[in-house]
């Protein structure tokens, strides 16, 4: 790292430590050539040369070690906008009693919590060195250095063209539209209230603030102790009709669920992602005085090794959209999947939730198709989403080897219709069933799915006929996705004789380079999956 960068991160760690945080003494912040600012195990330095670094033979980081801790009083989120103060029981009491309800105009109260949190980050950035959070904000990518934080929703028009027809391109456009609406409404409130320096809350800083929350934040339910949740009256989830309640003074006080917003944890967010990282974030809910989140690793690291966190089992499409990177394919791991959605699940859904707070996935509506067989040990994310066919030992029918198993079941039920669901289940299980629902209906459905997916099981002719229709529907869906990728290829065109051609396009920016690589992998995913349904489809297409 450059000296100025070293000074910034040294100041950050000192600031966090002064407020109750900790970083394992064997660790340091450094700049990795691939992953940027990161945390690693320190290298031993030779006693004869300050420049020469020699790895130690012992590992200072063992499985179970606490890597770092973050006191919630240095976190930054919507909750801080209630009082303008660091989180504490006192600031919670102030906001609850309306002594200092908001740091923004009263009309801001009606905006979604994640939007309010975003504008609070903007406010603290604009405050510069006078902000309590300045040591943290100074280490973040800065708004005026667009390439350092620009996620796909904020790419230039030339770069965005390279995402056309992809999961990320569609979701990025939806996020961009949503953010435009949210920004205009919030900025209008500031303008109407003649808020000090309202003109400084620009679209660029707003997009930056969104990117910081999208790529660095944590889910509050995982990192906020119960004592603080209770102090801020955060519900686990809101019931129907519970959105608002009347407070003293006649104002409508917002009821907020624990995951209606996201939270930034300084120093925590320096640790980069690995899908195989074994970690635990923990808070002591039994301790009424608990105000700290602890990060433990269950991996072993040698001197010079980078420490990793897990952002969850996310596909490259999800990582690309929310974090701006993808994981390369290796022999032991791939992260390439195409997201498909059934008609019942049409709409924005999980792929655009980066524009709002982090939420549970909800009902299975968004399904994945895998580059390799989905129960292959290298298909880590795909196998984690399987209901029954997770292990490599499962004798998965080849035609369904690359698709999420719940998609197969979803399509089966779509083919037979809700009125025939019970009889379909009975045929598979070879047993009679009553017309009423069973307490074991979930287990019956999972057993049906096992039977359907297992290549060694002989199924009734009626079930085979349903599966034939499922394969046709699946083929049509995958074929449509494949055609869309091909037709929107940046090099697609027509030659002088009217024939469709694809020429190689030389990327002009790093964004375009990443997008071309991403498109190629999506295409590989679909080709592999279609080949399991129609083995000779590519040679037949060439003959046409």
UniProtKB/TrEMBL annotation:
Per the record, its GO cellular-component terms are: nucleus
InterPro entries referenced in this protein's UniProt entry, alphabetically: SET_dom_sf, SETD3_SETD6_MTase
The source's superkingdom equals Eukaryota
* Name of the protein: Uncharacterized protein
- One GO MF term: protein-lysine N-methyltransferase activity
């Amino acid at each position: 790292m450059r000296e100025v960068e070293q000074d910034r991160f040294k100041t950050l760690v000192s600031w966090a430590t002064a407020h109750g945080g900790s970083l394992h003494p064997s660790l340091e912040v450094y700049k990795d050539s691939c992953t940027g600012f990161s945390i690693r195990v320190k290298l031993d330095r030779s006693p004869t040369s300050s420049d020469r670094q020699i790895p130690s033979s012992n590992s200072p980081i063992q499985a179970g070690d606490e890597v770092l801790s973050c006191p919630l009083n240095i976190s930054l989120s919507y909750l801080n906008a209630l009082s303008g103060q660091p989180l504490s029981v006192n600031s919670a009491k102030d906001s609850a009693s309306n002594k200092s309800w908001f740091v923004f105009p009263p009309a801001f109260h009606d905006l979604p919590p994640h939007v309010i949190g975003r504008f609070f980050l903007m406010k603290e950035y604009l405050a510069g060195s006078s902000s309590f959070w300045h040591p943290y904000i100074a280490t973040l990518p800065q708004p005026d250095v667009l390439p350092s934080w620009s996620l796909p929703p904020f790419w230039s028009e030339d770069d965005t063209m390279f995402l056309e027809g992809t999961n990320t391109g569609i979701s990025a456009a939806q996020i961009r539209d949503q953010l435009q609406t949210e920004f205009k409404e919030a900025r209008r409130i500031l303008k109407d209230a003649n808020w000090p320096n309202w003109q400084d809350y620009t679209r660029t800083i707003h997009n930056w603030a969104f990117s910081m929350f999208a790529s660095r934040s944590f889910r509050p339910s995982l990192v906020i102790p119960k004592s603080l949740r209770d102090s801020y009256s955060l519900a686990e989830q809101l019931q129907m009709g519970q959105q608002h309640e009347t407070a003293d003074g006649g104002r409508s006080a917002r009821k907020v669920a624990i995951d209606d917003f996201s939270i930034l944890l300084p120093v925590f967010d320096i640790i980069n992602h690995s899908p195989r990282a074994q970690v635990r974030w923990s808070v002591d809910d039994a301790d009424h005085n608990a105000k700290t989140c602890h990060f433990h690793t269950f991996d072993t690291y040698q001197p010079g090794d980078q420490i990793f966190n897990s952002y969850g089992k996310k596909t490259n499409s999800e990582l690309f959209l929310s974090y701006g990177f993808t994981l390369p394919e290796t022999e032991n791991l791939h992260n390439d999947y195409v997201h498909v959605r059934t008609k019942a699940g049409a709409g924005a859904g999980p792929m655009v939730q980066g524009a709002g707070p982090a939420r549970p996935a909800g009902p299975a509506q968004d399904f994945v198709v895998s580059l390799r067989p989905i129960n292959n040990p290298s298909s880590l994310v795909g196998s984690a989403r399987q209901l029954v066919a997770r292990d490599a030992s499962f004798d998965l029918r080849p035609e369904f080897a690359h698709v999420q198993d719940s998609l197969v079941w979803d399509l089966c039920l779509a083919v037979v219709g809700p009125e025939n669901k019970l009889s379909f289940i009975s045929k598979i299980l070879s047993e009679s069933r009553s017309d009423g629902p069973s307490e074991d209906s979930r287990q019956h459905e999972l057993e049906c799915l096992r039977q359907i997916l297992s290549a060694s099981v002989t199924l009734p002719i009626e079930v085979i006929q349903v599966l034939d229709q499922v394969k046709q529907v699946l083929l049509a869906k995958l074929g449509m996705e494949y055609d869309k990728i091909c037709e929107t290829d940046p090099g697609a065109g027509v030659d002088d004789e009217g024939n469709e051609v694809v020429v190689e396009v030389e990327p002009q920016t790093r964004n375009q380079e990443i997008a071309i690589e991403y498109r190629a992998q999506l295409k590989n995913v679909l080709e592999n999956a279609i080949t399991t349904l129609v083995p000779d489809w590519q040679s037949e297409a060439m003959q046409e």
